[in-house]
């Protein structure tokens, strides 16, 4: 099916009647399902809920500066004609899954690993396997158009049968890494960080998140479903995601960072910035965590993010509150984290909040425009969808988006991993290099 593009007028309500049907099945391993599903494929896991989805009942794509608005309006037009079988749990309702490129005018020259990833793309999956937090698993089929109901019924029958007879054998080890190429290399990184620090000392820039890319040539064919399953085991508390558009590469990761969730008028987000490593013993872990809590550099970097998020939410909110700052401990790094919640004054759509919050200074910087300019002028690789909003939204305008860090894009036997660090006035290039290497580990470990 051709993606719906542009404004509401391109969406014919007669063509977009949605029918959703579902059936409860026994537990199914996510990797095995992903291997079976057609493209475009998406996977999403949060808070005990796991979705693996494939095929498209409808696709929305958008490019350029109005992309958030375009997607929201096309989504609203699409959802207007939906019918959902009444026996389905909330987790199986129609949702659009996808995300955005980091920059609004992302250059897709047709030759990079980002080929096939537009500035924004969302898919209403034809088939989903949803494992809900209560332990139940559902096969869900969705179809659009005049014969939506009968197509959804047929699709459900076919997929419930296929899912029941899945072979769950997946490669147990990673494909192995033959060659690594860093962009920039360590000397180039040093120059970039020094130039950013100089810019901060000289003028009005306060913080910029500089990132780098690590391209790995793989020894064996990569099974993204197997890597996704491995990330799900190692990072159960992170958002795991996979976006595999038709005919493009596969973008995946396990990110600790929520961009925003909207549930009615309640908004949840967080500041996550300031990092240190993990220790070899519980005592060393504690020592590193308390050093992080007390570090003036990390506190400054973190507080800039908290203040910016509050300011970004302010125009929407009747109240904003922040929780206690804690240390979030992951498998290879520890971060300073502050939860932020807000109550909306009106029923703003989650995509309006995504637009307001992206990029947070945890992946962009401050002031935002100057930081973005610095990133564009400095970085020598394509961010594509790295550090961008990925997630879902539904017919009510509720949704959850994560920040797509700890991620990689893969095509064939090659994967490019991304990682970045917040640079402030007293950043040291060597320490920043070491810290960035820790952020490659989640994906790297799954590939080795
Ligand atoms: C930009 C990344 O991390 C951000 C999130 C947490 C901590 C960060 C930091 O300490 O610099 C970064 O702002 C990344 O992982 O690529």
UniProtKB/TrEMBL annotation:
It catalyses: chorismate = isochorismate. Its EC number is 5.4.4.2. It is an enzyme of class 5 (isomerase). Keywords: Isomerase. Residues 187-439 form the Chorismate-utilising enzyme C-terminal domain. Transmembrane segments: none annotated. One of its GO terms (molecular function) is isochorismate synthase activity. Residues 1-25 are annotated as: Disordered. The keyword Isomerase applies. Pfam families: Chorismate_bind. PANTHER family: ISOCHORISMATE SYNTHASE ENTC. Belongs to the isochorismate synthase family. This is isochorismate synthase.
């Amino acid at each position: 099916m051709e993606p719906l593009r542009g404004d509401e007028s391109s969406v014919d309500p007669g063509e977009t009647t949605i029918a959703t049907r579902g059936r409860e099945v026994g537990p199914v391993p996510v990797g095995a399902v992903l291997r079976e599903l057609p493209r475009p494929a998406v996977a999403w896991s949060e808070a005990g809920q796991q979705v693996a989805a494939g095929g498209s009942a409808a696709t929305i794509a958008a490019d350029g500066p109005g992309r958030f608005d375009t997607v929201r309006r096309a989504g609203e037009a699409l959802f207007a004609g939906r019918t959902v079988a009444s026996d389905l749990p909330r987790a199986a309702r129609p949702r659009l899954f996808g995300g955005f490129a980091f920059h609004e005018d992302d250059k897709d020259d047709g030759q990079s690993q980002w080929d096939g990833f537009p500035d924004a793309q969302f898919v209403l999956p034809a088939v989903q396997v949803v494992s809900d937090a209560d332990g139940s698993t559902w096969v869900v089929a969705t179809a659009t158009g005049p014969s939506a109901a009968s197509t959804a019924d047929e699709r459900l029958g076919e997929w419930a049968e296929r899912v029941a007879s899945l072979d769950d054998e997946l490669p147990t080890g990673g494909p192995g890494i033959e060659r690594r190429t860093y962009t920039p290399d360590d000397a180039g990184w040093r120059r970039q960080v020094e130039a950013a620090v100089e810019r901060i000392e000289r003028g009005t820039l306060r913080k910029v998140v500089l990132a780098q890319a690590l391209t790995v040539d793989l020894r064996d064919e990569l099974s993204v479903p197997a890597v996704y399953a491995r990330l799900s085991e190692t990072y159960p508390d992170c958002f795991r995601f996979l976006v595999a558009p038709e005919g493009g590469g596969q973008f995946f990761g396990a990110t600790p960072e929520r961009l925003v969730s909207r549930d009615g008028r309640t908004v949840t987000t967080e500041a996550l910035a300031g990092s240190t490593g993990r220790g070899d013993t519980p005592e060393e872990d504690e020592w590193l965590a308390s050093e992080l809590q007390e570090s003036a550099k990390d506190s400054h970097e973190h507080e800039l993010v908290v203040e910016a998020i509050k300011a970004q939410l302010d125009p929407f909110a009747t109240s904003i509150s922040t929780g206690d700052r804690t240390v979030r401990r992951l498998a290879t790094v520890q971060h300073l984290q502050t939860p932020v919640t807000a109550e909306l004054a009106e029923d703003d759509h989650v995509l309006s909040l995504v637009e307001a919050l992206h990029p947070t200074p945890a992946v962009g910087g401050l002031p935002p425009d100057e930081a973005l300019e610095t990133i564009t002028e400095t970085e020598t690789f394509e961010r594509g969808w790295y550090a961008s909003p990925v997630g879902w939204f539904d017919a009510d305008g509720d949704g959850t988006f994560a920040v797509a860090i700890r991620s990689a894009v893969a095509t064939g036997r090659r994967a490019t991993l991304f990682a970045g660090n917040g640079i402030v006035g007293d950043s040291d290039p060597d320490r920043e290099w070491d810290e960035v290497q820790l952020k490659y580990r989640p994906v790297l470990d799954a590939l080795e």
